Request: fold
Amino acid sequence: MSGTAGGVPFRRIARRYFRAALFYLALGLLLGAGMLWFGNDNFQFLHSHMLLVGTGLFAGYGAGFRWIAGRSDAGPPPGVSPALASAQFWLANVGLPGMLAGSVLPVGLGLDRIGIPFGFMEAAAGILFALLLSRALKAKPTPEPGRS
Reply:
């Protein structure tokens, strides 16, 4: 069984990301259905970001952390710590709701004020994920038991 020792925190983060992705999928679909029902397309930003970022990107983050978890028995690759992965998770999961909240507030409070710092948090989460995944891709994988 690969990745049992060092992969547990990354598997946990991956599961949390998949749960968040399912939450945003349900929320985004319900919002889309409500927009159709009421003939109101004023929430396109909210709807598209729930589905694209909340579902698509968060599922991608989950898949990446699940891949990192399954890479080796010897622990995480150099430079890829569970603490950094957890920080990335929280940056993303605080950034998106803040951005979404900013999108429904009036001009002067919304995207132009509140949404900007949360958008930067979301961007920082994406950059941190890219850094962690690139470090994991550069690391040499440990051989599986029974293979030379």
